[in-house]
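seq/struct pair 1
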Amino acid sequence: MRSLRAPALLAAAVLLAAGDARAEEEKAWAFSAYAYTFFVPGDGDYVQPAVTADRGRLHLEARYQYEDSDTTSVWAGYNFSVGDTVTFEGTAMLGGVFGRTDGIAPGYKASLGWSKLEWYSEGEVLFDTNASSDSFFYAWSELTWAPAEWVRFGLVGQRTRVYETDREIQRGLLLGFSGEHVDVTTYVFNPDDDSPTVVLALGLSF
């Protein structure tokens, strides 16, 4: 009986330690900060910063000039993920928008990955509380291939009202480089135009 008790106690200790490790992982905060600099031909260039904080299922975020110029939005959301070989990660969010544009915005973030291929999308429906006719749907999507962990390239598309454009949906190309805590990406929207829109993005995570 005593010979069976020691392995049982050892197994219980291992399970308890694993549970504690998972609990600590759930309690740990993860932070990120991004800055997208838009160079828009015939319009004013601008920077679009955002900061995020995640702890387990909880997602918090603040953005500036995302929905409109001189406009801030704050968000709270729920993280979830499924899959192993094919992975899906999503965040359902609700945001408040104030500044040049005021409103309420349900939104999402989602990514689907398989091997070196990944599809990413984020979007929101902004309900303008000052003028319902100004409500709109915003979206940004990327389809990328990563031949190595530190580099990726692919296609990008967006629908925005932050600046004036003749295209309802802008589309383009992207090239990104990633390190352990740093991500740098260049986007070129409407590359067939005489003066395409260029976006430089810098991201930090810690």
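seq/struct pair 2
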Amino acid sequence: MTDTATSTEGPNAGQAAYWNTLAGATWVAMQDKLDRQIAGVGAATIAVLDPRPGEKILDVGCGCGASSLELARAVGATGEVLGLDISAPMLEVARRRAAEAGLAQARFQVGDAQVWPFEPGTYDALFSRFGVMFFADPTAAFSNLRRALKPDGRMTFLCWRTVADNPIMTVPGAAAAKLFPAEPPASPPDPNAPGPFAFADGERLRG
């Protein structure tokens, strides 16, 4: 798979289309602001993973590469970090940032982690900062990712809790709604559908 020909087929084709057009372009344009917004929780999650010099780490849904670069600094020149994402525009930014930082141990690949043909038992650890909630079939995706890990591999990822726990997601819309005519209520969305809050249900996540 190449950056200029991201697959429009497969179980997550809709997500690929979304992140290679409007969403990807928006993240690229607002990269600095978004990085600052989630830097603290990202750093805390990396600390839990405890990346070590010389390790090989997979960063799922790496976006513009901020988390991959932090991981690359932690594993050092003898380690390796692969940032995997379905958004070619965001990975262009990630590659540029890695080159500017002199982090040759960070490399990036366009691909769908749910079906990517990983070499089994390759990675010491798996990390993701808000990148694993978008799979059409999370069980299939995590099974595939587990095969990519060594038998004693570690996994740490960051995901959103409920909408109610994250007013930053709802306050702007509520403010804007006061300025526009009310629309007929839509049917409630599937809470388990791919999206930011797909893992808000702790029981589902543990399952």
